[in-house]
Design goal:
7-stranded mixed β-sheet, 24 helices, alpha/beta, globular, about 675 residues
């Protein structure tokens, strides 16, 4: 296998394995899907350490990587593990009986396990970096990363189970590590498949959506009938019964219809799921229902198994979309808009602390819902909110948005069950009781600060203690790992690339800002997320081609363009972008996002092309990205807009630390000898 092919394969393995670990561990460890960016941070640390090892003489091949992967899979498959949810300053939706080791044990252990696994592909890619010219090596790395993202996206779309994911990973390890002979290859392949075949084989009633591992089973209900239970990532999520049975067992589902002045004809249900709320709306006389559900596999399961056949009713139109994105794109007016228990159990991506439904409960989202109400209409939502402070926060948001307090039905004995109903005008609601504020109410969440489930009155500057402790332990473990792997000599070598460290940290923040921004503008769906990451990689690849084939301005000029792009991203109001038509919004969002991305990566490519030790330089950049992922939690205190300022500060530090004589403003011909010598 040629060096270029090995690099392409190793880079594809890096991205595919990273995405696999985020998805699979989040499904196996209860609550870990709320911390999937910790898996991402572990991936960056492992890749960085792998690149540092690639620059050391006498290194051994990374057979430890598949062994560590087998150990993690075997352990998590054999022993149930949960991240304990005792911290009351942040809410995790789960069953009440969930328990497990404290998060300060679970999160660092999984973090270190992921780092060990990812160090192997990092070392394999780093070895190729040392044998190729700088920018061509970076190009092949980016192309391999794109292949990994596209392949995992296809698997997500098709609902491919983990057995196939890990077979692809094991095959890649065999091709990359099987050089000593066929005996090693066969041993690796057989041992991998033997380990994977037990815990990962598809079980009856289990399927994978783009967001979750979904487990379904049929059981008797209280009325001597049957019902379907739906669990996602090991947590109870939905229950399929007839509308009549559900109203008998849980009459609060009828509360929105009891508080309206007149029965609703046109209804919007966000979080329609498997269709129970749709069945209830039809039973209450709705003439048309728009059913919005973000997860296509849950919608499909409801279409097949809902006992009322709700989705086959001609009065129902289904939409696979994010609820906020649907509201931004429709002009329809509704008599009732219902947010029906839209409690996601995962983050938008591994690159942020944003949950799938975070933008659905902001003050701006409530205003959008209000604008879509017909005269006499009402907005309602209900859930088991877990904590009284969350009930108060939502009640306050609706009170401020509609100008009058909503009707509320609560049950303090049922983990803060609450049903809110608020009319377009106060005369449009008939309340048995209205929401009243408590002494200390959290401010409404906003599009800039969409952290509904974080209690701002607890933690450190609004950051929950569970995050502060886990990040502190992760940073300490990372420093110890760098010292253990690299030693003092490697640390001195890394120090000369401290500007690349800051570039990596800043770019991770820039990436996070773009991921969250596009999620707001176009929806928190998995497809939008995949397009954003693929678009970022394409922009980086374009920057590499520009640097290699065209004369580019000096580094200081590129920093000027970068800071200008960051200023534009900071000053443009989100509300203005959301007010634009879809096509124009897409153009503006792409231009605003990718000006700083292109400038930042032209700067990186220029700097990287002059590095004396490419594997060490690239590894240092990856370690900086891990540090940037830790800094991203500052958004919990300051909001996402402030990340642009922090990003600019890091880029300023990188500019001040850039060594004199760094390539910049050179023609391709002037740069070619330098690249050839570095090979």
């Amino acid at each position: 296998m040629s060096v270029r092919t090995r690099l392409l394969l190793a880079s594809a393995l890096m991205l595919f394995l990273e995405l696999t670990l985020i998805r699979w561990t989040g499904a196996q460890v209860v609550h870990l899907s709320y911390f999937s960016n910790f898996v991402l941070l572990g991936s960056f640390l492992g890749l960085g350490l792998g690149f540092l090892r690639a620059g050391q003489p006498g290194r051994r091949r990374p057979y430890y990587s598949p062994v560590a992967l087998l150990g993690l899979i075997g352990f998590l498959s054999a022993y149930p593990v949960a991240v304990n949810r005792e911290d009351r300053s942040v809410i995790f939706f789960t069953s009440l009986t969930t328990s497990g080791p404290p998060p300060w044990i679970v999160l660092p252990l999984i973090f270190l396990a992921v780092a060990t696994i990812m160090a192997g592909p990092g070392q394999l890619a780093g070895e190729c970096f040392n044998r190729l010219p700088r920018l061509p090596a970076y190009r092949y790395d980016l192309c391999g990363s794109l292949i990994g993202i596209v392949l995992f996206t296809i698997f997500s779309f098709l609902g491919v189970p983990p057995l196939v994911w890990f077979f692809v990973i094991s095959l890649a390890f065999v091709l990359l590590l099987g050089r000593p002979g066929w005996s090693v290859s066969i041993t690796l392949l057989v041992s991998t498949l033997a380990m994977f075949s037990y815990p990962l084989v598809t079980q009856e009633g289990v399927f994978w959506s783009p967001y979750y591992r979904v487990s379904t089973f049929e059981e008797p209900d209280r009325n001597n009938g049957t019902q379907w239970q739906v669990y996602v990532n090991g947590i109870p999520h939905q229950r399929l019964t007839t509308a009549e049975t559900r109203l008998l067992q849980e009459p609060f589902y009828d509360e929105p219809y009891q508080r309206l002045v007149r029965p609703p004809k046109n209804v919007l249900i966000v979080g329609a799921g498997t269709g129970t709320d749709v069945s209830i709306a039809l039973s209450r006389g709705a003439q048309h229902v728009d059913a919005v559900e973000i997860d296509p596999r849950l919608l499909e399961f409801g279409r097949e198994h809902n006992p009322d056949r709700a989705y086959q009713d001609p009065r129902v139109t289904t939409h696979v979309n994010d609820g906020r994105a649907f509201l931004e794109r429709t002009d329809t007016k509704y008599d009732l808009i219902l947010f029906a228990l839209p409690d996601s159990l995962t983050l938008v991506s591994g690159a942020s602390a944003l949950r799938l439904e975070s933008y659905l409960f902001t003050k701006e989202a409530m205003e959008s819902a209000r604008q879509h109400l017909a005269p006499g209409g009402a907005f309602s939502m209900y859930n088991y909110y877990r904590e009284p402070w969350l009930v108060d926060r939502l009640g306050s948001t609706m009170n401020q948005t509609f100008g009058h307090p909503p009707c509320i039905l609560t049950n303090s004995q049922a983990i803060s069950l609450a049903v809110f109903v608020v009319g377009l005008e106060q005369s449009d609601q008939r309340c048995a009781a209205t929401w009243q504020p408590s002494n200390s109410v959290n401010a409404p969440s906003t599009d800039d600060h969409p952290f509904l489930y974080v209690d701002e009155n607890a933690g450190l500057f609004g950051i929950p203690g569970i995050y502060v402790l886990a990040i502190s332990l992760i940073l300490i473990a990372s420093l110890l790992a760098i010292v253990a792997v690299g030693g003092t000599a490697q640390i001195r070598a890394t120090w000369q690339y401290r500007d690349l460290f800051l570039l990596g940290a800043a770019f991770l923040l820039l990436e996070t800002k773009n991921v969250t921004g596009f999620a707001l503008y176009f929806g928190t769906t998995w497809l939008v997320n995949a397009f954003v990451f693929a678009g970022i990689l394409l922009a980086v690849l374009a920057a590499v081609e520009i640097v290699e084939h065209f004369a580019v301005p000096p580094v200081r000029w590129m920093y000027g363009i970068l800071f200008g792009g960051l200023f534009i991203a900071w000053i443009i109001p989100v509300s203005w972008v959301l007010s634009l038509p879809f096509g124009l919004r897409l153009v503006v969002a792409i231009v605003v996002a990718f000006i700083p991305i292109m400038a930042a990566n032209v700067i990186f490519a220029q700097r990287f092309s002059s590095s004396a030790e490419p594997a060490t330089a690239f590894g240092t950049n990856l370690l900086g990205a891990m540090f940037g992922g830790c800094l991203e939690y500052m958004a919990l205190a300051t909001g996402y807009r402030t990340l642009v300022v922090l990003c600019a500060a890091l880029y300023l530090g990188a500019f001040l630390l850039t060594p004199r004589g760094t390539a910049g403003g050179l023609s391709p011909a002037a740069r070619t000898p330098q690249l050839a010598d570095s090979a």
